[in-house]
Amino acid sequence: MENFAAPGDFVDAARQGWAKARPELDVSSIEVMGRITRIGALVTQRVEHDLAPEDITRAEFDLLCTLARSGRPLRASEVTAATMLSGASTTKNADRLARRGLIERLPSERDGRVVLLQLTADGHALVDRTFPNFLARDQELLSGLTAREQAALAELLRKVAMNLEVRH
């Protein structure tokens, strides 16, 4: 069993374990990718926990935030592209949010077959009261970094993300 009490984080322990189990493999990439994955999973858990009192999932919140920042009603396909959910998930989440009165469906003026999604006043209110808490949490998580370190990290992660998005 790996010793997670040693100095370092989970990824350091995992890397040490791989060094013993498969010393011939170069596992240096997990220094970055393992941490990105682990941080993402931990943040997702925290987000789900923080959204539980609102009775809303992370995917539903992402849909609401996508609409909130768009400044206009969006087609479901636009929401799907922005949230990286499947079309079926977008539909399921939109149905639940519409039943709760957080979004509404509008007919497109250009094409009667197209339905647009738009936040309701209640949807705006939920985002307005909840989103600042997420920003505060993010700032807390980054508080150990200087502004310059945060900017450098953001730029490096942008490069990784763009490399992945080009291949996606």
UniProtKB/TrEMBL annotation:
<dbReference type="GO" id="GO:0006950">
    <property type="term" value="P:response to stress"/>
</dbReference>
<protein>
    <submittedName>
        <fullName>MarR family transcriptional regulator</fullName>
    </submittedName>
</protein>
<dbReference type="Pfam" id="PF12802">
    <property type="entry name" value="MarR_2"/>
</dbReference>
<dbReference type="InterPro" id="IPR036390">
    <property type="entry name" value="WH_DNA-bd_sf"/>
</dbReference>
<dbReference type="InterPro" id="IPR036388">
    <property type="entry name" value="WH-like_DNA-bd_sf"/>
</dbReference>
<feature type="domain" description="HTH marR-type">
    <location>
        <begin position="29"/>
        <end position="162"/>
    </location>
</feature>
<dbReference type="InterPro" id="IPR000835">
    <property type="entry name" value="HTH_MarR-typ"/>
</dbReference>
<dbReference type="InterPro" id="IPR039422">
    <property type="entry name" value="MarR/SlyA-like"/>
</dbReference>
<dbReference type="GO" id="GO:0003700">
    <property type="term" value="F:DNA-binding transcription factor activity"/>
</dbReference>
